[in-house]
Design a protein that fits this description.
mainly alpha; 6 helices; 74% helix; globular
C-alpha cells in the first residue's frame, strides 16, 4: 500500500508538472455510458472466467484472510489508482512524447500493467493481468474514460481477492 501510494504521489506530481488536465487523464463524462457498458460486459465475462478457473483449481489461489477494509481499500483506491497510472497518465505521457501509435500505446500499457503483478510470483495471475490489461487498454484507447475501467478493475480485483488469488 505504501509503495503504491508513493508511486501514485510521484505520478500525480509528474502529471501536474507536465500540465495534464483531468480530462487528458480520462476523468470525463464524455463517452461514459459506452465505457460503462463495455467495461461491465468485460467484468461479467471476466468474473465468469475467474470463477470457472477457480472451480477447476487452475489458479492455485493464495490462502489469505479477507478483511472488509482490504476489499474497500482495493475497490476504492488500489484498483482505480492502477488505472489512472497505467491508462490515464501513461497514455497521456506517451501521446505527449509522440508515441501515439495505438498499438504501441496498448502494448506499453498492457505489458507494464502485467509486469507490476510479478510481485505475486504467480504465473496464472500474470496471464490474467495480461488479458485484463489488454482489454482495459483497448477500452481506454476507444473511449478515453477512466471511470468504467476503474469500476471493472475494482470489481474483478475484489473477486480475485475473494477467491484468494491476491
Amino acid at each position: 500500500f505504501h509503495v503504491l501510494a508513493a508511486v501514485l504521489a510521484g505520478f500525480v506530481t509528474l502529471s501536474l508538472h507536465r500540465g495534464f488536465h483531468l480530462q487528458a487523464l480520462g476523468f470525463t463524462t464524455r463517452h461514459l455510458a459506452d465505457s460503462l457498458r463495455a467495461n461491465l460486459l468485460f467484468c461479467g465475462i471476466g468474473s465468469l472466467g475467474l470463477l470457472a478457473a477457480h472451480q477447476a483449481d487452475l489458479l492455485m489461489p493464495y490462502r489469505q484472510q479477507g478483511l472488509a477494509c482490504s476489499y474497500a481499500l482495493y475497490m476504492f483506491f488500489l484498483g482505480p489508482v492502477q488505472e489512472v497510472i497505467f491508462r490515464g497518465i501513461l497514455f497521456a505521457e506517451m501521446e505527449r512524447r509522440g508515441l501515439a501509435e495505438p498499438r504501441v500505446m496498448v502494448a506499453v500499457s498492457t505489458l507494464s500493467f502485467c509486469f507490476l503483478h510479478l510481485i505475486y510470483n504467480h504465473p496464472p495471475m500474470l496471464l490474467i493481468t495480461l488479458i485484463s490489461g489488454l482489454v482495459w487498454s483497448l477500452l481506454y484507447l476507444r473511449w478515453r474514460n477512466i471511470w468504467g475501467i476503474s469500476l471493472s478493475h475494482s470489481v474483478l480485483g475484489a473477486l480475485a481477492m475473494y477467491l484468494g488469488m491476491l
